[in-house]
Amino acid sequence: MKLWAYVVRRLLLFIPTLIGLTFIVFILSHAGGNNLVLAEYINPRLTGEARTLLIQKLTEEFHLNQPLYIQYFYWLYQVLQGNWGFTTTPIFSGTVITAIELFFPNTAMITVVASVLIWAIGVPLGIYSSVNRDSVGDQVLRVGSFTLYAMPIYLIAVALIIALGVYLKLIPFSGVVNPILVSDVSWYKNGISYPTHIILIDSMLHGAWQVTWDSFLHLILPSLTLALATVASIIRILRASMLEVLEQDFIRLAWSKGIPAKLVYNLHARKNALLPVLTLYGVTVAFLLGGAVVVETVFSYPGIGYWTTQALLNNDVGGIMASTLLFGLILVTANLALDILYAFVDPRIRY
Amino acid sequence: MLHLERMKGEEENREAKKNNESYRSGRLENLKVSVSVFIANKTALAGLLIFIIFIADALIVQFDPQLIGIQSPNLLVPNFQNPIPLPPSPEHPFGTTYPGIDLFDGIVKAIRIDLAYSFFVVAVGASIGAIVGIISAWAGGMMDEIVMRLTDIVFSIPYLILALAVGFILGRSLWHMSIALALTWWPLYARYARSQTLSTKELTFVEAAKAGGVGRGMIMFKHILPNVLPPIFIQISLDLGSIVVIFSTLAFIGFIPNADIPELGYLTSLGLNYVQTAPWAVIFPGLVITVFALAVNLLGDGLRDVIDPRRRS
Amino acid sequence: MSEILQVRELKEQFYTRRGIYKALNGVELKLNRGEVFGLAGESGSGKSTLGLTIMGLLPRNASILSGSVLFDGIDVVAPMRDYASKSNHRFSFRKNERIIKKMNEELEGVRGKKIAMVFQDPMTSLNPVLEVGYQIAETMLFHQSSVLAMRRLARAKAKRADLEEAMKVIKNTNGDETVVERFFEERGLKGLEEQVLSIWRRPDLPDARKEKLILSLHSEKLGAFESKVLKLVQERGSVPSWFSKLPLFGRLAKKVLIKEGYRKAVELLSTLEIPNADKIVRMYPHELSGGMRQRVVIAIALANNPEVVIMDEPTSALDVTVQAQILDLVKHLKTKFNTSFIFISHDLSVLAEVCDRIGIMYGGRLVEVAKTREVFESPAHPYTKLLIAAIPTLEEKQIQEIGGTVPDMRFPPSGCMFHPRCPYAMEVCRQRVPEMVKVSSDHHTACFLYSQGEGST
Fold first, then answer.
1. Chain C, nearest residue to B305 by Cα
2. ipTM for the complex?
């Protein structure tokens, strides 16, 4: 059962990576000097005497007067306790943990939907492109993905807005739901829906189907933008990978067995061709996360990315550092999951 | 048996000498073939042309802006009398964007800025990264491990967000943004260069050279670098397009503090509020970036066809 | 002796960036039933290309200029040849690829079933992400699903008493095939005989264990639906295409049949002397040694008992002991099933062991074809003579190499391909291409030394 050995090994590697990640965030947040650190952890609503007291308390807690390498442990301790600081932005002010709790579900939603779209569209098209090499369809796909690949995400977003939102007046392109629909609803207060904080799901839980439909519409453009921005490279990589696989000896053997072409492409070739795509998917996830920041900003979609840009614009240290840490955690976890998935898929890796 | 082997060896020597002589003239031949292959690739040629146009723009604005009627090459010129974006017209070939900035003027200036900073990022980040990667792979051992761990750590954060954070700490300006991007970008090159070097190192001809008693430095220069540098160089040229896109994306989401720096992403963001009524305000700047990225990619692909020996057959 | 495969005047070339490689320049070949034909030559002589062309396994830059490959009533290369002769300078890879795809479709019934191929490098011949047993079972699924269904049904129908009786019969007749076959057929348990006998013949198990295994082959329950499906498959001879497209049912049929295929694969591998075959079938190619891998590839080729097997350097990547086993296997199959082989190798000593006739290839043409003995004892063509002289033997002698190198097939020499290197070259050799002429009965060669300059038959 060498597979388990591999999983355990990979999990062990997870820990130093986490430490490295936290270390970088630590360096970043303390590089601006103690004042910046304090700004991150002081509840902005405190003033006067309470504030001064808090500053003293924090200086002690974080050992801000000690050398950096000691400070790291105290900072890490705070992080593990759940004290990630405060954030002050136009869309939300309060503890970072609360902000994450409120905004993360939406980001997760569009990223997941985008991923599903990417695989559902990318894989068939990539295979089609390679199987029908140089056909009209293939050339169109190549030109299309080449162009999409060159376009900055915000341009794709804007193009979609213009095409679908403005000219066809089909789909909304701002926010997560039409505010009128939720103005008088028990499970939606101050822009936050309960219990899952994802309006789409919460509205289904409460049977408010109109809201479900509306929030679904709002979901389309952000997810589609993310998907389009990423699928281009997936198609290119998969096509190249398939073409390489199709030249291999074992594919010739498959042909020599007289099995139907569909099986040769979809079983023998595809299974091998997807491996490099999976390997590179870690980079794709990084791209998706960065893309979510842009997409949420353009569409004013209340997720972590939107909060990050707001923090950037408002010089909110707590927000920036916390979101950096959060995104890092997501990426590292995603890479771990991908590595393990890869071991399941490629029998050679386990030995 | 031994007699035969010696005989064969001498014959091989003679053959090798003959080959060597043709080797040098062969190089010129090779160059001619390369150029002709490149020229035959029409898209690569188009890419090259567009790329040259962009560079020309940057250079002209840098050294003689008056030539095309540009004043104040480092500033966007607003027109508060007429802040609402106007459609393209003879006066404003690309129209205007909020607040009253002529898009043609803005774009021409912005190209220079974007190109300059992106070149910096690529030159510094990629080059340093590549050097680190090659040395790390060549040296092996402890140093290699350290470099690997370092790059791993940097990779654990999505590059856009890392660039954001670093730039934030340094201070929000274009210059700091470039530094932040360079810092985020070098590990990618370190990794890439390292893997290239490692795979070349493993190739048998290096073993052969070592067995022949060639010094380590010589091996590095004559055998490894010529195999490793071309793909890296091509990767750099391809990444130039990516960097410009990322750079403009950072500017788009609001990294820039000043309201009047000419930058393509920033110009796009200015028009965002008017996307329904004045789509050109967003389309033109965005299109310019896309065209540049496309051109660079086509150019890079064309170069790859020429330089990568495997693609030739 | 009847002809089973015929290659006529085959001319083939490959378009590459570096030029046009004229791989085959007029190959004439006749393969008889039950014959092992050796194809010898240096690398670049076109022997592998010939093997692949007979199977129709060509890349999109291959162009068949003229000639035909006749097998099982079909001209394998007809579509490609027709396209090439029509298109001339406007040869498009895309169109050629489409033609190749159509050709693949047409040949589905023949490949794997009547003609099969064993490739050179077992490291790369097997799909690394699929279990070895599956790769063997797959070819059986498509070409003998009715047999698989029949076996499974027989196992479900059989009672222990049947098997006990069968055991007696086996012991009495020492595993006589015809008797055992008749035994099961009489009881309506056709399909069980090969399962039983294969266990009986396994060399790696003690007799008691074998008996136990055989006796366990009874009353293997089958769901009602499954058995209906299997009966349908057995009658129709294959899984009906409309059926296999149905989401659940088609899958079920495939699953049951593949499982049975695994079983048969175990039997097949045991015949090829792989121990612990039941464990091996669940493994992946990278877990096996080179010799085992090659035997898997051979198992795949032989699974459906084809009429012709093309083996492309099957022993070159393996050590000598495995080589010997494979050669033994070829001999065994030839005698038992009357299978025809085309055995491609650059090693004449290997060919000497197992072939009935040998053809020597050079520069994309057959330059000599004769019975094995004659090739070695009285070679006609100068090239053949030099090849034989170059074989290392136990006597001390100076190894003679053949001067010069294999021609660059982009710019083949005029006239006879060998004339630049031939010690007997004459003026006519440079000017004209020599035809195959008869040297003695069943011994032909393409050389002007043997024809009076005019070409006689």
1. C17
2. 0.89
